Amino acid sequence: MLFSDAEIDRLVAEDVPFGDLTTDSLGIGGRAAVMTFTARSPLVAACTEEAARVVLHCGGRLTAGPVASGTRCPPGTPLMAAEGTAAALFAAWKVAQNLIEWASGIATATRELVDAARAVNPAISIACTRKTVPGTRRFSAKAIRAGGGVLHRLGLSETILLFPEHQAFFAGEGGIEAALRQLQTAVPERTLVIEVKGVDEALAAADRADVLQLEKFTPEQVAEVAVAVRRRPGGGPVVAAAGGIGRGNVAVYAATGADVLVTSAPYTARPSEVQVRLGPPPPSQA
Question: Is the pTM of this model over 0.85?
Fold first, then answer.
């Protein structure tokens, strides 16, 4: 994923809107400094490249790294190192650290879900929704991909997803059949995802949908739909289970026969822990 200079600039401007009052007041901004980032907890790295750009944006220079997003890092793994003036590195410090910790927390949680699900069903996908913290969607998406997840409809412009709430507007005009005719006319080349609320509704929609999104089904209900779909002549739609899926039950849902598990759980994951050391260069480098 590519991030613009403006996106990096916004991260820095949020934390350093009018300069660094402490560093400026101490009169140390022009002194030489070094900074290192190290994994304190086990993590899957994410947005390290963008954190490195924060350092460069603030006037620092990279001396090592960054480790690539998606890398599994045990505690003690060096993630990135930089040098520059104290003013540059103090300006970049917390912006870069917060970005790595937060994004790596999402990536690590995603990787845990993927690993747990694929231990039961190696072919299953973990798809993460657009239920991100407002303003963070693009960085969140990179973190999900770094953790081995896939992206599930990150915006309304992306896919056709027919909700029961859409169908309600056609209640007196032919119901779901009228809605489907309208979609076929308007966007005939698009994949059709239909969200359903019950087993009977899912089976009734199975010959119309490319993807059945089972909203808040129990594992037993998902399994019932998956078995019925597989028995259809010529196969059936993709079965995606959604709603309430997280670390505690992902393996159970993976065993149902669903093709995709849809979740937003990684977005509320605890940030990973990254240790940052910032100070004057050692005498050998001074």
Answer: yes
